[in-house]
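SEVERITY: medium
COMPONENT: batch folding queue
REPORTER: lab tech (J.R.)

DESCRIPTION
The queue accepted two submissions in a row. Attaching both inputs and their returned structure tokens so the on-call engineer can compare them side by side.

ATTACHMENT 1
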Amino acid sequence: MVKISVGAVPGDAPALLSFSQGCPDGGVSLTLGRKGAGRKRKQEVAGEAVDVPGLTYLATDFGSQSVKKDACKYAVAVYDKAKDELTLLPTDHAYLMRPAGAWNVGNLGETGSSLANYERSKSLTTVFGTVKKQRAVKANAAKIVHSDNVQGVDAVQSAMQTDITEGLGEADEAIFTLDGATQSMDEHRKAMLPAFDQDATSAKKIYDVADIVPKNVQAALEKSQEGIEKDWVKSEEAVGAGETHRHWTKYFGETCGSELLRCIHAEAADAVAAAGGDARERVKKEASAKKLRARLLFMHGLVTVYRSVAGARDMRADKDPIVEQLDALPGLAHAHIFRKFTQERRRAKKKDTEGADGPGVVQMGQVECSQLQVDRLLLHIVVLALTQNKFSVELECLAKDLGLSVKRLSLLAREVGCKLTKANLASTDTQKQRSVTVAQLNAPLKFPKRSQGPRK
């Protein structure tokens, strides 16, 4: 059995050397010295790698003040084989050997003193500290935000630097630009909006509708219309092509509960009726109307998901009621909307006492949105409404479908590049004369300018 004893510090006090970045296999030749005088005197250790030319190490004991801050005491153990005895010799000197010169790969963003003390404390705790202290060091390190892990840090750094435009005649005409802030805003728009071309020469080419309604979802929505129309024929509600189009207009107004969708489809139905006996033109108009209906159904799905999530507590709603409201949409459309605009979650299991096979257990699904996802969903709805209504929409009508204020919707319309105007509508059989706000999308696309703040 090994006998352990604590010995007195000999004349030649032992020292601890920590090579946090690794020690060469060939060893290190050490040289001891002192730095400073009086109370500021510190002991210094210099080392030179034996097998690596030019690699040198340098360390000091950081003074007595740093030693007092250590979380634990250090000792050197000396084992005597003859006596089978282990002697612990206390030491107050613990050196962190850091590569000097070109081999130094420390962080350049901090001062030498603060960096050295931090590295010393971290390295010594990692090598000699207790498990509890090592966990505390890892927890503190996890709280440090490094520039490599911050998105858009280059843009922020660029915004902090001002560039004076060259070629100006007088100094008071200097223009200071914040290109970094502009770049950061552009990246945010690309993440929030559908794919867009800011250099497009016509409004039709600005936004890519296929980025909102993919081709496979579009095809599934067009095919799902056949089942709805067959139900109408069976119930003798529609017997001809003209009646089918009128029933679709009624469907968007009553079943979907959207005045905007009803008005958009009514115009398409009138275009089909205007084709008359021109078979070629009629086929073209009907194909266009079918494509329009698929996108309107998808827009109805987006609006339903938004209203369900926005009206729920913590913006978290049960998934099954939403799917029941969108029974006319194929499952592919449901999956795309949930995957792109929400976070799907699993809810606690509950008993199902009304199952066809008797009582059982089912797992309820939920969808959840952050405020950023809600804004992204609304922006896609606004873009889809514009592209399906000749790039113009009455905000009062869309605001009613969404349950939003016109002021809130105006901000969203500006964010997608719309120009807002006031229009006076004449009175009709059902409505009085009124003033409405119209959002118009024109080319070239111009986003709202970033506020420069109050001028002094």
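ATTACHMENT 2
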Amino acid sequence: MVSWPIVVLILAVIVFFVFRPNIARVIDRIRHVDKKSISFYSPNLEKAVKPQLERIIAKVSCGDYKQLKRRVSHTLDLFKGTKILWISSDPKRSQYEKDALTKDFGANLEVVKSTDEAAKKAIEYNLVVSEVLNDDVTKIFQSKWTIAYVVDDVWGKEKPPYIFGYTNRVDALFHYIIDILERDKI
């Protein structure tokens, strides 16, 4: 007769080998575990925030980054399957932010270069992130959640109407996205 500890051990080994890729991916992303929380790790989010940790303008403090990681870890399920349209004249710009959304958080993201392209496709998406800021953006997206993510320093200029969020900070961009996703899921 086989004892129950041997059966449990055999089942644990089978489960480990069957789910090993998923277990490794989850363990790799967990940075810190304590009694109250598990700290989530996103390599692309860290790459996106790192340059702003060292800047003077649009600076992201370590505390701001910790708050963002905590909020993302609590709302990660909201990103799964979310469809985001990203308008950028330079598709290589903000690559870490895009990678964090797609590779780390599971969102579906499409990048278009012009507001004309975006206008044709916008109805299919949950929200729009625009690095292009002109009158077309505000006219087209009056009925869509739109975030203006302006990499350049444009402070002092008038903020366009109908824009949900207007920022040049990476942490604020992700907070705005989470705000929109929370509102949509209610």
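NOTES FROM REPORTER
The mean pLDDT is 77.
No errors were logged for either attachment.
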